[in-house]
Amino acid sequence: MKAIIYRHNGAPDVLRFVDRDLPVPGPGEVRVRVAVSGVNPTDWQARSGVGHPKRFSEVTPHLDGAGTVDAVGEGVDQSRLGQRVWLFMAAAGRPTGTAAEFTVVPAEQAVRLPDEVGFDVGASLGVPALTAHRALTVAEDGPRRLRPGALGGRVVLAAGGAGAVGHAVIQLARWAGATVISTVSSPEKARLATAAGAHHVINYREGDPAAEIREIAPDGVDIVAEVALGANLALDLAVLRTRGTIATYANDGGRPVELNVPQNMVLNTRFQFLVLYTAGPEARTAAVQDVAAAVHDGALPVGEKHGLPLIRFSLDRTTDAHRAVESRAVGKVLVDVTS
Question: At residue 54, does pLDDT exceed 90?
Answer without folding.
Answer: no
